């Protein structure tokens, strides 16, 4: 039986090893995307010299930004609790996010959804830079699906014949020959990474196949319903928003949630994300309010929100490692990075054994 699994492991590994290394490497790079962006462009996210004065009201910032726009308007504004951070303003066109100084309402810069280096890495990770997001998405999806079979077959192959050899199968003999060391690193490192990599594969396929997504959500007792009815090229008409109502809502929510991480305001809706160390980073308290008066008309705590939203947030958080702060992010980064080396050590082992077989002939 092990011979069958070995052949499956070997054939699939040789066929898609480089693809798996690419997916793992780009995934590792994306784990600390937000932190790297902030280090590379601090002026975009932070106020260089925060004055002692109070920050401008979100409504005032929205009005000032609108005066500088043509054929567009502010749709949403996110106010962080950290007074050294810029406000994040999203426009009704949906093309970009503006980073705005909360004291002067001047635009520090803007960022598209997938621009720059990390945008390219994301496109490589998910679609192999395929602009149509068809064949590239399919190759990545089926590659990850086959990687699951590689990992499972690897676990079966790893199981020792007796309990006495169990300890040896977990060790990497660094003092042995180079060939032995690479063999041990592939076998032992592979078993350490197998379960975390399986989790990353299972959650990652959520974005590859609708049938996988339906099954995954079904395991948690919910059903995924896409809100996208199809892309349209028609230009949306600008929505008239009473930004003064935002001012009233923000003051109330700020008073009710003194430990908030960020408050987001848009047309008739608001959300409050609390500070967290462990958990779903997308969790937030939801509010609806009268756009004319700013009176809060509905409140939905996170615990009472639809299970679909919770499951969606958790799947994303588990996949990118954002559910446990720097500690879990670091582990996710190492798992993905070391995962990229497994196909390479596998290729090396295959090459050495093939070379030895030729010498015997």
Q: Mind explaining what this structure looks like?
A:
There is one protein chain. This protein is an alpha+beta fold and 361 residues long. Helices cover 53% and strands 13% of the residues. It is built from 13 helices and 8 strands. The protein has helices at residues 2-31, 33-40, 42-45, 58-67, 116-127, 135-158, 166-170, 178-204, 210-219, 243-256, 307-320, 325-339, 342-360, and strands at residues 74-80, 87-91, 96-100, 107-112, 260-266, 269-274, 285-289, 296-300. Strands 4-3-2-1-5-6-7-8 form an 8-stranded antiparallel beta sheet. A hairpin with a 2-residue loop joins β5 and β6 (269-274). α1 packs across α12 and α8 runs antiparallel to α11. The longest helix is centred in the N-terminal third of the chain and has 30 residues, at 2-31. The chain is elongated and about 85 Å long. The protein starts with a helix and ends with a helix.
In short:
The chain is α+β, with helices and mostly antiparallel strands and 361 residues long. It is built from 13 helices and eight strands.
Helix content: 40-55%
Alpha carbon gyration radius: 25 Å
Q: Please give the order of strands in the largest beta sheet.
A: 4-3-2-1-5-6-7-8
Work out the number of β strands.
8
- Outline the biggest β-sheet: 8 strands, antiparallel
Q: What distance lies between the first and last C-alpha atoms, to the nearest angstrom? A: 28 Å
- What would you call the structural class? alpha+beta
Query: What is the global morphology?
Result: elongated
- Provide a count of the helices: 13
Task: Give the amount of beta strand, in percent.
Answer: 5-15%
Q: What value does the average pLDDT take?
A: 92
User: Spans with pLDDT under 50 lasting ≥5 residues?
Assistant: none
Order of secondary-structure elements: HHHHEEEEHHHHHHEEEEHHH
């Amino acid at each position: 039986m092990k011979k069958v699994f070995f052949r499956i492991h070997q054939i699939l590994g040789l066929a898609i090893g480089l693809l798996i290394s690419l997916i793992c490497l780009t995934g590792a790079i994306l784990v600390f995307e937000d932190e790297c962006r902030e280090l590379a462009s601090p002026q975009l996210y932070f106020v260089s010299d925060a004055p002692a004065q109070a920050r401008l009201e979100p409504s005032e910032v929205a009005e000032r930004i609108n005066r500088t726009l043509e054929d567009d308007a502010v749709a949403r504004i996110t106010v962080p609790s950290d007074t050294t951070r810029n406000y994040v303003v999203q426009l009704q066109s949906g093309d970009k996010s503006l980073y705005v100084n909360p004291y002067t309402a001047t635009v520090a810069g803007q960022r598209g959804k997938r621009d720059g280096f990390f945008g390219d890495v994301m496109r490589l990770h998910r679609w192999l830079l395929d602009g149509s997001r068809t064949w590239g998405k399919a190759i990545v999806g089926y590659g990850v699906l086959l990687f699951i079979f590689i990992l499972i077959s690897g676990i079966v192959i790893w199981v020792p014949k007796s309990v006495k050899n169990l300890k040896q199968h977990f060790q990497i003999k660094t003092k042995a020959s180079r060939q032995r060391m690479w063999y041990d690193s592939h076998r032992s490192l592979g078993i350490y990474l197998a379960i975390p990599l399986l989790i990353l594969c299972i959650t990652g396929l959520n974005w590859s196949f609708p049938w996988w997504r339906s099954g995954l959500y079904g395991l948690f007792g919910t059903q995924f319903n896409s809100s996208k009815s199809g892309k349209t090229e028609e230009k949306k008409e600008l929505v008239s928003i009473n930004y003064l109502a935002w001012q009233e809502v923000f003051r109330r929510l700020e008073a009710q949630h003194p430990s908030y991480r960020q408050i987001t305001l848009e047309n008739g809706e608001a959300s409050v994300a609390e500070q967290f160390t462990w958990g779903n980073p997308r969790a937030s308290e939801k509010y609806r309010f009268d756009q004319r008066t700013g009176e809060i008309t509905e409140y939905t705590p996170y615990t009472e929100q639809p299970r679909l939203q919770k499951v969606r947030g958790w799947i994303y958080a588990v996949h990118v490692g954002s559910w446990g702060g720097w500690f879990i992010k670091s582990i996710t980064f190492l798992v993905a990075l070391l995962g990229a080396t497994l196909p390479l050590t596998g290729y090396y082992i295959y090459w050495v054994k093939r070379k030895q077989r030729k010498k015997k002939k």
